[in-house]
Amino acid sequence: MNWELLGFAFLTGMLLYSAFKVVTTTYITHAAIYLAFTFVALAGFFLMLSANFLAAVQILVYAGAVVALVVFAIMLSQRQDYSGKPIEETRTEKIERTFGSQYWGALPLVIAAGVAAIMIVIYRQVVAAGYWTSEPGPALEDSTVAIANELFTKYLIPFEVVSLVLLAAMIGAIILTKREGQR
What we know:
By secondary structure, the protein is mainly alpha-helical. It has seven helices and no strands.
């Protein structure tokens, strides 16, 4: 067993576990942390594929900025019923909350299992037919330099316009979340 396969297995386990915990955890702040782990595991897949720029963007934009935005939104929301105390529930209630929906029952879990089974069948047929070769392609040139050259020469004006729009959106969000007593 080689290191690449072990790394892939670790990243897959980390991604699946953290994605599962994002949607099943009780606290929204814990969900934001698990979301960050999900994004970091996805960046690890990009690194394994030699997509260094995408990995860096994944960590900076998603794991950094989006998770920070989610945490700020949680903290700025004026939720009065949040006490921070653990919810008391029995083991069966926890299992029902985790695997079943109040309205749909276990239907989402059954659909997800069906989609996973279909994907496994398709994958086996594609590999058995020989459509998917296991040989890696030629190494790509450094795409980060090419993207930077295009971004700061040909697309400089749209890049700056987007940054101004994001700045205006951030200022608007700060003004809208300001409390009445602080105005």
